[in-house]
Amino acid sequence: MINFRGGDRKQYNLMPHDVNEWLPENHLARFVVEIIDQLNLSSVYASYKGYGKDPYDPRLLLGLIFYGYCTGIFSSRKIEAATYDSVAFRFIAGNLHPDHDTIANFRKTHLDKIENWFVEILMIGSQMGLVKMGNVFVDGTKIQANASKHKAMSYKRALELEKKLKAEIATLLEKAAEQDKEEVMVNIPEEIARREERLKTIQEAKATIESRRKEAYEDELKDYEKKVKKREEKASKTGQKPRGRSPQKPSETPQDKDQVNFTDKESRIMKSKNGFEQCYNAQAVANEDMVIVGQHCNNHANDKKEFLPAIDSVPEPLKEEIEVIAADCGYYSEDNIKGCPEGIKPIVPKSKAETRLELEERLNNRTTTEEEMYRKRKYKIEPIFGIIKEALGFRRFSFRGEKKVSQEWGLVCLCYNIRRLLKLKLA
């Protein structure tokens, strides 16, 4: 006869009385609490007014948010539910259960402090001997905005609708002039007001697209002038017309396909692995131990302008220790190479053809430092985005607008680092 072991759900005191006995010694939740205890939260505590109900301790709320992002739980409602269902969340919350509004409001209110906490945690890791510099790697990934691409309007469509609405408003005004006042008061004023409101929205969208094109035009014009000058110098030196197409002068007029999104106007349509989506461009700088030592996020679809800002995003004490920085050809420009800080050697190929280093190495049976560094980029920083998107499930921002999105990306990178530092500590 087999004796099965079953749980007695009516038994008292299944959990230890002491909350510190609930989790293993090296559990991630304990490490989150340990890290938060070392952060400077004076500005957070100073923001409380001291009246009304007793508030939850900011360290408790921050612990729930950090642990949520560390484990792929980004929703405040799910974090609230986890304080009942998860032993780890119960440990952090000390058996309390803040409601989702409290958690969401705390995150929204103090999101602007993430940049400082990101740096503080790096410094804590450095003091623990877990954050080492020397060789670093830059890469980026497209992450979906909190907006649908179907809520966007192209410049061509805006022009068409503007023309159509103006014609409809003119027609309605003519009808209103012909009819008696009593008849006019029934429908026509409402129809005119509705169309005028929509026309205003479309004209604002149109103005946004035109403003963006003007900004882009100035940068494109500089690139165009550089290319023209380079071709002229080559022609003067060789006495022959340079091969290939002559560079095309950019236009200040928006293209028909240029568009703006009504849900999040600062997001952009970008090409991703899943096709064209409404996105932001998230950037990271990682060391050889796969710790994110710098990060930023914006709405630039192209990586060419992100190389120098990526270096600048590394905290000053750590930036001074960078020796070599590697990035793919999407980051190459003469300005980037020339603008790289003194003492840092950039390894950025000019084109995709120059990234065929592994093939050349096999054919020539040789290895160089640059080839080795460029090859490392593929397994030192690219997997980080895989962990963030696949293991943690962070594929879409919760906030809207470039500023808030950039701060949330900092939160994601911060929490990734907490996981990584614990792994390095236990290694």
From TrEMBL:
Residue stretches making up the Transposase InsH N-terminal domain: 18-108
Segments forming domain Transposase IS4-like: 265-418
Biased composition regions of type Basic and acidic residues, renumbered to the chain: 224-236, 254-263
InterPro entries hit by this protein: Transposase_11 (IPR002559), Transposase_InsH_N (IPR008490)
Single GO BP term: DNA transposition
Superkingdom of source: Bacteria
Pfam families named in the record: DDE_Tnp_1, DUF772
Annotated region (Disordered), positions in chain: 224-263
MF annotations from Gene Ontology: DNA binding; transposase activity
Coiled coil spans: none
Protein name (Swiss-Prot/TrEMBL): IS1182 family transposase
Source organism of this protein record: Persicobacter diffluens
